[in-house]
Amino acid sequence: MAERMVVVGGDAAGMAAASQARRERGPRELEIVAFERGHFTSYSACGIPYWVSGDVAERDALIARTPQEHRERAIDLRMRTEVVELDVPGRRVRSRDLSDGSESWTGYDKLVLATGARPVRPALPGIDAPGVHGVQTLDDGQDLLESLAGTEGGRAVVVGAGYIGVEMAEALLKRGYEVTVVHRGEQPMSTLDPDMGRLVHEAMDGMGITTVGGAAVTGIRTGADGRARAVLTEDAEYPADVVVLGIGVEPETTLAAAAGLPLGAHGGLLTDLALRVRGHADIWAGGDCVEVLDLVSGAQRHIALGTHANKHGQIIGANAGGGYATFPGVVGTAVSKVCELEIARTGLRERDARRAGLRYVTATIESTNSAGYYPGAAPMTVKMLAEHRTGRLLGVQIVGREGAAKRVDIAAVALTAGMTVERMTTLDLGYAPPFSPVWDPVLVAARKAVTAVRAAGV
Q1: CA angle at residue 153 from 147 to 156, to 5 degrees?
Q2: From CA 279, how far away is CA 275, in angstroms rounded?
């Protein structure tokens, strides 16, 4: 008799796990049942801002694999069906069909939790009013586009200035909106140190985006029709025809918590290197609902990225299907853009290093994305953190124009390898005038960091 694997969640991690498990074992050996409460599977939520902006013409371009395609691979995928309870001792899940409300229990031999993350939506007056939108799912994107269709060229307020916030600011600017970004931080992009975030702020202002920092939102003012009309802070009011929330996300672990599964300080599920939930040999978890090991600081982190979710799914599917794979951790690499400005970071910020008890030095340099004499050479700023005395690379942040963001991958590899900044200066990187100065900006920063380490002494 075939074993049964139940997957809760039909996006990146869940369906990657189901697909990989099916490659490992055929239908006669392993039955796979997957539950997804939404209308879509295996799609790129990261692409929603570019769909909203019009850079991506159609919603379906963001879908990697449809429900029917999964079913053709012998995966029993049940759409618009929400798992509402985990019975771990009984090895079963209770699901509800959202079309008719009927409920049923499904037993499992192996359970995969890929419940993702939920947008942070503070309990503020007017936060659920028409015209206030999140951008977590394709349904959210469709709702936002329909809202924009009725307010074309009006005023938009984005709440939050992280990755989603700045990407949505760009999308709305491209659609002809007057855009204001309201956020609580000292500078936009709190994933950067404030000195690097200031560069983002200056660039956004230059693009015509009004950026208001240090502003805590207290509510949404609505009109007589109940629709959002303004975003309120303690000191001001920002008129809006549409409001987009980009405050961030948190792990969706409501089911796991109710079932008594172990959660970390950030609310995410805790797993071992094979992505098994700690203390449960036949339950795996991956994607935005788990915490991961930071290879630089040694701490647990919650990082919601599709890159990690897909890797998690592959590893879970291999293990649940009888193979073997592990996920060692992350270094915290992320890239984004707002119009022509590219933003990247990997490793630790200064406050992360302090929190981890690390002594460090910093080095910041200004360079260009190509040889200075090459037509179109554009500025780039690179900031590097290195450990005091040892010179071990701790983190890199980059803000610049075309060709800036993906340079962070050099640093990501160096961090994963545990390299020192001195060792980095000898890296054999590609060079030609259209692509880089003779000394790549990352290596220039490494050279300056070496000098800072030596100057700091013992």
Answers
A1: 65
A2: 11
- C-alpha to C-alpha distance for 193 and 158, rounded to whole angstroms: 21
Burial tier of 73 (Cβ tally within 10 Å: 0-12, 13-18, 19+): middle
Comparing CA positions, the residue from 148, 149, 120 lying closest to residue 136 is 120
Q: Could you give the 3-state DSSP secondary structure of residue 149?
A: helix
Domains of the chain: 3-118+250-320 (3.50.50.60), 132-247 (3.50.50.60), 340-451 (3.30.390.30)
- What residue type is assigned to position 91 of the chain? R
**Within 10 Å of residue 105's Cβ, how many Cβ atoms?**
11
Those residues whose C-beta lies under 8 Å from the C-beta of residue 178, and which sit 6 or more positions away, are 154, 155, 156
Contact predicate 159/137, CB 8 Å: no
Known catalytic residues?
Answer: 46
| Per-residue model confidence as pLDDT tens digits over 278-336 | 999 999 999 999 999 999 999 999 999 999 999 999 999 999 999 999 999 999 999 99
Q: Is 320 helix (H, G, I), strand (E, B) or coil?
A: helix
* Residues 118, 251: Cα–Cα separation, whole Å: 6
Report phi then psi at 199, rounded to 5: -65, -40
Would you tell me how many other CB atoms lie within 10 Å of the CB of residue 205?
11
Per-residue tokens: 75 = 């995966």
Query: Is 127 within 8 Å of 160 (Cβ atoms)?
Result: no
Question: What whole-number distance in Å separates Cα of residue 198 and Cα of residue 180?
Answer: 16
What would you measure as the largest C-alpha separation in the chain, in angstroms? 70
DSSP secondary structure of 76-121: EEEETEEEEEEETTTTEEEEEETTT--EEEEE-SEEEE---EEE--
CA distance 313 to 330: 15
Among 113, 123, 119, smallest CA distance to 257 is for 113
| pLDDT average, residue stretch 414-438 | 96
The beta strands (E) that lie in 271-408 are given as: 283-285, 292-293, 300-301, 334-338, 341-347, 360-368, 379-387, 393-400
Both tokens of 214, joined, read: 């240090």
Asked whether the beta carbons of 418 and 392 are under 8 A apart, the reply is: yes
Residue pair 417/409 in contact by the 8 Å Cβ criterion? no
Asked if 453 contacts 386 with a C-beta cutoff of 8 angstroms, the reply is yes
| Order of strands, sheet of 237-239, starting from the edge strand that comes earlier in the sequence | 217-222, 228-233, 237-239
Chain centroid offset of residue 219 CA = 26
| Rounded CA separation 119/249 (Å) | 4
pTM of the model: 0.93
- Tell me the chain's radius of gyration from C-alpha atoms: 23
Mean pLDDT of 196-208: 94
State the DSSP code for 270. Answer: P
